[in-house]
Amino acid sequence: MQQFSYMTDILDDTARRMPENDAVLMADAKENAPALTYRQLCHLSRCAGTALAENGVGNKQPVALLLEKSSYTIAALYGVLYSGGFYVFIDPAQPDSRLLKILNTLHAEHAVTDESGETRLREAGYQGKIYRLEELFSREENPDLLQGVREKADERDPLYAIFTSGSTGEPKGVVVSHRAAIDFIGHFVRETGIRATDRIGNQAPFDFDVSVKDIFSCCRTGAALVLIPRTHFALPRELLDDLCDRKITVLIWAVSAMCIVTTFRGFSYRVPENLRLVMFSGEVMPMRHLKQWQQALPDTEFINLYGPSEITCNCTYYRVPADIREEAALPIGVPFEGREVFIADENLQKISEPGVSGQICVSGESLADGYYGREDLTAKSFVNIDGKRTYLTGDLGWIGKDGLFYFSGRADSQIKCMGHRIELGEIETAMMRDQGVTRACCLFNQKNSRIYGFYTGSTPERDLRAWLKTCVPAYMVPNRLIQLESFQLNKNGKIDRNILRQRMEHPAGK
Fold first, then answer.
1. Fewest 10 Å CB contacts: which of 178, 358, 469, 504?
2. Banded model confidence at residue 166, pLDDT cuts 50, 70, 90
3. Cβ 201 vs Cβ 228: under 8 Å
4. Residues in Cβ contact with 138 at an 8 Å cutoff, skipping those fewer than 6 apart
């Protein structure tokens, strides 16, 4: 596979080799933005890059993109890269307060948006330059200017920043370089076999790092990126129509998005028979849901992916065998090439003994540069272990006797209750082994030292409590079991634990 050092070089190369391949299209034909070939995408992106560079965007400058998903949005993303800047997506669904926190953290002097976004930015008090998409695309490409920008650029320059939630309430911007992303995407497409004939069905919001795999795997291989509207993930029939009618072949989805299909028995409506590869990440995949996907798609390969944003998308993967048992623990697998993954104890000493739990740590290629403007947080999470820069994930795991890595939960979900050290994830797993439970989530209330178990499904609370008493020690049975019609999801498609926490702490408001 040809080596590249800057992401726009890859788009230039793909547009040259496969100019008429579909690059980006919308699953919903009612959307305004048109389908783009790689030739068209490259042209629009270079026009946008020219306009931004002429208006002062320089190397290593952040450019905020306040835009909904569309083919034009992808062109704007690449336009930022052609100008020498790095992109930062801000979901228009974000509240104004968080939007301003992100812009203030970045000290962003440039933002790309549409008419409604411009009004919102101005009303929120944003003082920087604002560009409309139509302005960027109407500018003629200036090859000499773009070449000059490229000659000043370096592979270690930032490619993007993804903002994650901070424990203090301040969002943290994880900065990833061109080199880090290119190295990872190279290993990713080789290991998964993504190719030019594939059509990847995008679920992830663009300010969530799963989208990095969707966008740049397509560009690297010449595959088509099919953008699925977020509204369709609340409408399983429309979602299945998207997958079937657009002949989607690859999914890289959050676990909760997959569970929507099975929870609402989507496969009894239509089966997307073109799917050859399904990858999932973000949360622990409930085995009952995974088995339903496998049964509906017996010829499809399923891969469990693991990794936080700070290591550039994923550091391990596991090819799920078709005959995996429903009661089995699902491994997170083995490291991608270029990564070293290990388990460390509280003193950051490596643990080699199978079955001993500790913190999952990652070193090697593709670590993020750190948190934008927060050297203090960067120094706390990115440390030196055995002479190697290493990211401390805050996740707990262990190595099995089979040599595979297993995830057991967040370090902050390991609680101490009544003198016992408890993994909330172990309780959730036990709850979901009940045939009538579809999803489960446990929280611990520090104020009253009580465990709350939230779940969806048909099993009555009394029966679930009786079941749990046969599965886990009495001290691990939740003090409260709360049956829900459904879990609310956050914008990244994960169970929204903040909403559950509010319900747990203020039960009178339920």
1. 469
2. low
3. yes
4. 47
User: Buried b / exposed e across 266-276, counting CB within 10 Å, b at 16+?
Assistant: bbeeeebebbe
Q: What is the tens place of the pLDDT at every residue in 295-352? A: 999 999 999 999 999 999 999 999 999 999 988 899 999 999 999 999 999 999 999 9
pLDDT at 167: 47
Q: Evaluate if residue 419 carries a pLDDT over 70.
A: no
pTM > 0.85: yes or no:
yes
Q: Nearest 5°: phi and psi at 235?
A: -130, 85
Q: Which pairing describes strands 370-371 and 414-417: parallel, antiparallel, or unpaired? A: unpaired
Quote the DSSP letter at residue 228. Answer: P
Q: Are 27 and 232 in contact (CB under 8 A)?
A: yes
Tell me which H or E stretch contains 279.
strand 277-281
Q: Is the dihedral of CA 349, 353, 357, 363 positive or negative?
A: positive
Q: Encode burial over 406-418: b for 16+ CB neighbours within 10 A, e otherwise.
A: bbbbeeebbbebe
β-strands 224-227, 199-202 pairing: parallel
Higher pLDDT among residues 482 and 471, named by residue: 482
Burial 30-43 (b: 16+ CB within 10 A, else e): eeebeebbbbbbbb
pLDDT band at 418 (very low <50, low <70, confident <90, very high): low
| Cβ–Cβ under 8 Å, residues 351 and 358 | yes
* 180 closest CA partner among 279, 321, 345, 307: 307
Whether the Cβ atoms of residue 61 and residue 236 lie closer than 8 Å to each other: no
- Specify the DSSP class assigned to residue 243: H
Q: Are 288 and 258 in contact (CB under 8 A)?
A: no
Grade residue 30 by pLDDT with cuts at 50, 70 and 90.
low
- State whether residue 163 is helix, strand or coil: strand
325 exposed, middle or buried (CB, 10 Å; 0-12, 13-18, 19+)? exposed
Q: What is the mean pLDDT of residues 248-272?
A: 94
> Quick one: average pLDDT of 379-386?
96
Residue with tokens 């994960």: 494
What is the reported pLDDT for 276? 98
Residue among 384, 299, 394 at smallest CA distance from 346:
394
What per-residue confidence (pLDDT) applies to 169?
Answer: 54
For residue 359, what are the β-bridge partners?
344, 396
CB 360 within 8 A of CB 395: yes
What is the pLDDT, as a whole number, of residue 507? 67
